[in-house]
Automatic annotation (TrEMBL):
Binding site for Zn(2+) 2: D91, E126, H378
Cofactor, free-text remark: Binds 2 Zn(2+) ions per subunit.
Positions annotated to bind Zn(2+) 1: H80, D91, H189
Name listed for the protein in its UniProt record: Allantoate amidohydrolase
Domain of life: Bacteria
Family indicated by similarity: Belongs to the peptidase M20 family.
NCBIfam families: hydantase, PRK09290.1-5
InterPro entries, sorted: Amidase_Cbmase, Bact_exopeptidase_dim_dom, Peptidase_M20, Peptidase_M20_dimer
Amino acid sequence: MLSCSKDRMDDKVKTFSKFGDTGKGGITRLSLSPEALDAREEFCKRCRALGMDIKTDDMANIYATIPGELDLPAIMAGSHLDSVRQGGNYDGVLGVLTALEAVETIITEKISHKHPITVIVWTNEEGARFEPAMMSSGVICGKFDKDLMLASKDLDGVTFKEALEASGYMGKVENRMTPDKYRALVELHVEQGPVLENEKVDIGVVEGVCGMINYEFTFIGQADHAGTTPMKYRKDALYAATKTILYLHEELDKLDGKLVYTTGKISAHPNIHTVIPDIVKFTLDARHQDAEVIKQVLEIIKAIPKIVEKCEASYEKAWARNTVEFNSEFVNYVENSAKEYGYTAKRMYSGPGHDAQFVTDIIPSTMIFVPSENGHSHCEKEFTPIDNCLKGANVLLQTILDIDKN
Ligand SMILES: [Zn+2]
């Protein structure tokens, strides 16, 4: 079977790991920072050397394209080059580099293809410098208001608009991806979780992105002196919140085993060691591919009494997203490609959000996952062995060619 080059793949990963290198095994490459611009420059340099045509749109997304034999809409593959603070060398960038490697293989092996093929680089996927995450795909796919996004500021007060204008990558609105110009998107990404590695699976066949809900709970008690208030007179909001967190864990554990839920944020007022807490807030993030299970989570939340341990309990939806299903035909191509190469594959849903989940609303899309060592991601320990990167590149290449044929 056709194979991408391991040496070239290795060189790509190593080269891009230099841009924003923290010296501790990872990178800090915030969107449109000097380090991120260096990575973009290297990307464009490599694309030009391959004879690709490079365009950017008004959100500085980069489209590097090789022509096909026919005048057809292009097949896109790619991801993002920005990282979180002290992030890893694989999240996002591997999707760009495997796409570039697939194109390089097509060119050097002179593989015929009808459709043009575009390697895409999304701007500001992480939202680590300018919130929110998946900003530019969100604007293009009609999820976010562009003016609001342009006004987003980093910690130094620089707006996204200013960074965009200074980057040299701001192009025309007409260059945005639209369904008439693009046929498909395939985004390869690291799993960012431990499942593939633990189950010794090479390729994650991503069927969609899990739906999620995020609720904020508030408990109101009475602040009193920690030394003088007997236990029976207390209205301790932290105690009420703790009891509720335990209740949620006990009940949510009874639901489907694929449900994941997290209380990642908690605050206690006044947060002084001699005062009984009077206002405590915590969040619950719950994710599952099946809307029915998410509904069950809501039933459990709704069953929380209005008064818990003499404190007022209330909750409010912070935000939610529905499960996104990728194009089933493309999902099959990914699964079959993995099989043809003799790789082990597993169908799964993504927990984290990715640009492809917005794009698939307007252009049929899918994703490919490769394992993350020990499940680590968004940290310097993030690692995917080069053999797994190569397997991912091969499956990506074959999936592009399958889309091209059909
Ligand atoms: Zn990513």
